[in-house]
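Researcher: Re-running this chain for the archive, since the previous output was lost when a drive failed. Same request as before.
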Amino acid sequence: MTGIQEAPVHALLADGTTVRIRQAGPADCVEVQRLYEAMAPQNLRLRFFSVSPSSARQAAERIARGERPGYRALAAECGGRLVGLAEYEVLPGDSTAEISVAVADDWHHRGVATLLLEHLADAARTAGITAFSADALAENHDVLKVFHDLGLRVTRHFDGPEVHCAVALTEDETYLNAVEARGRVADVVSLQPLLRPGAVAVIGAGRRPGSVGRAILRNIDNGSYAGRLFAVHPEAAVIAGVHSCRSVADLPRVPDLAVVAVPAAAVPEVAEECGKAGVRALLVVSAGLDTHHSSALMDVCRRHGMRLVGPNCLGLANTEDDVRLDATFAARHPGAGTAGVAVQSGGVGIALLDGLARLGVGVSTFVSLGDKYDVSGNDMLQWWESDGHTDLALLHLESFGNPRAFSRTARRVARSMPVLTVDAGRSEAGRRAAASHTAAAATPTMTRQALFTQAGITATRTIGELLDTAALLHAQPLPHGKKVVVVSNAGGAGVLAADACVDAGLVIPPLATDLVDELLALLPDGATASNPVDVTAAVGEGQLQAGVSLLAQHDAIDSVLVSLVPTAVATATGEDLVRALTSAPGPLARPVVAVLPAQAARVELLPTSVRGTLPAYSDAEDAARALAHAATRADWLARRPGAVPKLPDVETAHAKDLVSAYLEAHPEGGWLDPHTTAVLLACYGVRQIPWGWARDENEAVTAAERLAGPDGRVVMKAYWPGLVHKSEQHALHLDLQGASQVRAAHRDLVTRFGDRMTGVVVQPLAERGIELFAGVVQDEVFGPLVVFGLGGTATELLADHAARLAPLTDLDVHDLLTSPRCSPLLFGYAGSPAVDLAALEQLLHRLSRMAADLPQMAEADLNPVLAGPRGVTALDARVRLVPRRPRDPYLRRLR
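Model: Regenerated structure tokens:
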């Protein structure tokens, strides 16, 4: 069971209301009867096909019987009132369950039934149920529409006035898209009181000028906030010129948003006061909440349906004309614009706001997420996607609450706007700092980078690099590829710029002869038109402008980098070479960036004579990295969305039974023995080299005689539970030939490992091939990660691996095969034949499917995997299981 089977969860309805979804039982008997008795006769008839006084009593009696095999009931409640009920009961001898759903009359058309059915379907899938069955009156258009709109495959059979519906519970892309769309609508509506409040109250704006609350109150008041502003203080009637009341209940109007800046211990009490008054959103800037206060704050917010930003944050701002809210304690108001910014660190937030202000890039919405108890980066992406103002998203996230849902949202949003982030916590020290700063779990670098790559997120290493890239993406069109032409008025500067481009992964191609001739005709004598292009110190404004315009319009070029150093020649003649770049006669088809080593600022956006700006960098490396990020984004956008292939000959049910049986016998989990590992891999069609198990010397000889290849050679590996690195412990013998060598090898292993060794594995000596590594790690936060790269004994030393989050699409597998440094070996190198790429792709897809099917699989290591022209075979395999309940990352629930 997942989610609500372990504990109640909260989720959003279509109108943004928060409801609590929980398992229903005998204690709900009275409430269930009351739910049905309050229904209008027409709704009772639609529910029970007739109107009978006994219907409500019978429904209550069904709940009163409590939990039983094949039965599940879920309740939706708000403010302690039962507003919806959904039940299933498994039909005898079938994997189909009959369902019913009921919603209170005054809660219709708010998404209660749909939300309940989503959670009921999740519970049913976990229980092995494959379909729902329901009967309804043909005139019950509302419930038929609920079934149709679920996103699941529904078949209908009409029988007179009744219709029988069969709902397949397969969780495919269509269903996930439908759930995602419903979640997006509900999420955006729920954020309205937070980000577009009609009235704001600041609680904790003390009379002391230096207090955080007073600074926020002053910023709201001075920032021309379009709504009504109040302060709450137990004594003062006016604070900083703003009317103040003794309590939230005394305010002349219930505020949509309350800003809480009180001591940590007082936060839950203040939140309770706000909830009772009807406040819809909280911004808690207070820091230092302990576990008790944190739990109490979240409980209050969920009970009263309030969205929460913070605690321990800088605040939030919305620059839209009809809002103009600056509820931060930053020193300056953010300028209005189209960049959405969300950060966990207030310090990073201030740095980003200052950097964007220097560039002249305005902000649509700024949210400091702080400790991120509720509102997250995922929420903000959905807001920016829908707000009609944002076209550039900047994120700084130290932790991920639901990274798989975040990845799905980011992948969709990144199609319509650039999504940039700082890859925080790459080092061990950085991860420790992130965990202590935000109480977040450390995130492995490889996993996080896989998330960013698959979602199309532009991940930078520093705030400066993020601003460099944001400037380019804000000001210039995307390049079509990685081919860059470097233009410079000083040869040395051009060479350095070209080196920076190559280091960033860009390409500096030679120019075609016809382009060289055309270019030289525009430039002064002495110019060279190889790449880099040296226009010489004698170049004039007109010549430089004509040359750059020619290059920026040429189909063989993707972008132009112009490096200009100040010279006495230009000064003497009055030429302004930078003006040559900013006064182009019309917009250019390809990005042009300037590198101005004499420029004081790291990056500036220079106004141009046509619409737009020109990014100018003081260092060629910064410009090159920004161009590389832009090229990567262009490549990601140009790719079709990947697809997860359907795999034949997969025995999921058998694999799940095997895992359940092992964990029942070993509740703490552990490494599977060779036989169980082989059976599990066979369920997914993962090919292993033939092997035999031997408990003693004689069995080893027998196995060797059976398995030896044409040359008569075998391999012997020691085994005991928990043995992971056989080579490091010298627990294997290679190249054994004949019974005497097999016996000697076995005696050696027994002598060195004794009773710890439970047996040996005997295999034929493998053919030659490329040794690779393929494996799976189940991350507690991110889910399954598939890792691939160079294998063998040096796999950890060389660390030539790539990783992607499962489930893998065909594009993900392609990236896995081409990303490691060893990838040329796979496609044929120095005359050697290419490996069986189709078999290698199948191996990765099957590992991905196994990881997605079996969340209990903590680790799976296939090392080495021998790849050759005739196939791919795992020579050694280890699988570790842990007790873990499956959890649907896409099921709608609040944090």
